[in-house]
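Assess this one:
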Amino acid sequence: MFGGKYKGGLAPLYSRKIKKLREKRQLTQKQLAELSGISESALRSYELGDRKPKKEVLEHIAKALRVRPEYLSAPEFGPKMEFFYALLENDELMGYTITEIDGRPAITGGLYTVGLTFDGFLRDWKEMKQRLDAKEITREEYEDWKQTYDPGHWVNTPDGKSPWTGK
């Protein structure tokens, strides 16, 4: 049990994200709980960090909030070394390659599943950052993109739309 006091007084990242998105969508805890098919007390305990939702529950919450479940469950890195070790632990799975670009080390990637590539993700991210910098999209649209990033590899739905975003 976290008692809502996790890591120096902060609830786990998934808890903070659920609460932030619920408030952004102007939903009460009761409304989000109903949309997610869970009890209000369960949702409250997830937001406080007292309990961690099971994968299936997190998927229901994510769908109700119109984000990908991976966004809610993404790891939180404290010291830079945690991020560095995450890269090292996943290099073979993700197919990272270390190369040099303009004399600086850079990470590029290869295929790892169904054509989804690290390079493709980086290209998508770069494009969105450029659109933000050029003021073609708002900061809110950019944040929404980050929360719902999906390169199109979801299970086919009858309407051809993402089950998470409806787009």
